[in-house]
Amino acid sequence: MAAVAPGIAQLALALLLAPLLPGVVNKVKAAFAGRRGAPLLQAYYDIAKLLAKSAVYSRTAGWVFRAGPVVGLSAAVVALAALPWAGARALLAFDGDLILFAGLFGLARFFTIAAALDTGSSFEGMGASREAAFSALTEPALLLALAALARRSGSLSLSGILGGQGIGAAGGAAVLLAAGAVFVVLLAECSRMPVDDPTTHLELTMIHEVMVLDHGGVDLAFIEYGAAVKLWAFGGLAVSALLPGQGSRGAWVPDAALALAGMLCVGLLAGMVESVMARLRLSRVPQLLVAALAMSALALALVFVRQ
User: Fold this and answer.
1) The pTM of the whole model exceeds 0.70
2) Mind listing the pLDDT tens digit for each residue in 128-137?
3) Is the peptide bond before 194 cis (omega within 30 degrees of 0)?
4) From CA 287, how far away is CA 26, in angstroms rounded?
5) 3-class secondary structure, 176
């Protein structure tokens, strides 16, 4: 039980603080714009308000529409349970769990797309089509980045892969490339600029937001919280890949503090990217995602060359 306790604490801490990360991003954006901005805890207030409201369902929507938010949130939580972002062994750790990590987000995306199509709205179908097209490039980039990290560590479990030696050891360039690719995937998967604008309501630029327009109340609360958990998971993956020798000292509290500082840096970096870059035209988004795919492929090639 003592060996499992850090994993439970790690997961509980992530689930508790996940809505704080979008707040950091929004605070950075507000600072760049010279505004005070919303409170850091605004996401908690929004989720609590939505949980107090009931959901309204269209007569044309079936069980898929209702299952979409639940499956999306459940998949994100299980994926987070397989991620050792704070130095402790993940609560759900086994050989090959890196495939589960990527596959769960694919499952969540599938149900989100299916729920959007279940409404029968051509508007939501447009967003679903864009989401499916861009995911065809983000998923290979993520898998190749995980493959590079797995090959470098010699482990098929995220707990072994991300408990390595960080960027200071041999193959540090490959780790940097893989972490950079994961960050680009984070921007795309979490609907951040320059791939998508989470605050837009313009028909020609909406991707993720258009797919959830018909959701409300508890369902929208699940979607918002699931998006925060997803942002934390991808940020934790990049941070854990870069931190040196997490978990090797046998002291979970210092590792967790270092990981939290890394997560703060992820929020700051994402906020700065959103502040200095405009949203790309839809025809340019695949070019950015192909660049992330190339970074992952190069990281994998560097690992094979060094070994």
Assistant:
1) yes
2) 888 999 999 9
3) yes
4) 26
5) helix
